[in-house]
Amino acid sequence: MSSILPKNETVQIREVWNDNVDAEFALIREIVDDFPYVAMDTEFPAIVARPLGNFKTSSDFNYATLKFNVDMLKLIQLGLTFSDESGNLPTCGTGHGCVWQFNFREFDVHHDIFASDSIELLRQSGIDFKKNK
């Protein structure tokens, strides 16, 4: 699968925190009519528990596992990418495609349940858990 963006094109990741959430939501409201397709990505502290019981299919088990963990754990980040029907991204006045990364402060590595390897991978990917507090 080829990239929609030209090789030299960069994407601006718009970091959303408590202090700029209103401004970023206002920007999203401005672009959503022209870019109505949404891709979503979430970051949770991994799979930390498995449900008990009998499941008819592996899909039922996988769904139950995911739901059990999502219900129990705290969201770390939510990524949103908006596009038009051709896959073009909004530029948000920057000349580059832009996407949003919402940072949630409820997760605390000192008090919440998580899988160590997952948290380490998120740290290596640039998530600053001290800043998320």
From TrEMBL:
Its main location: cytoplasm. The keyword Hydrolase applies. GO terms for molecular function: metal ion binding; poly(A)-specific ribonuclease activity; RNA binding. Its EC number is 3.1.13.4. Its cofactor is a divalent metal cation. It is an enzyme of class 3 (hydrolase). It catalyses: Exonucleolytic cleavage of poly(A) to 5'-AMP. It holds the Pfam family CAF1. Keywords: Cytoplasm, Exonuclease, Hydrolase, Metal-binding, Nuclease, Nucleus, RNA-binding, Transcription, Transcription regulation. SUPFAM superfamilies: Ribonuclease H-like (SSF53098). Belongs to the CAF1 family. Component of the CCR4-NOT complex, at least composed of CRR4 and CAF1 proteins. This is poly(A)-specific ribonuclease. It comes from Elaeis guineensis var. tenera (Oil palm). The gene is LOC105037628.
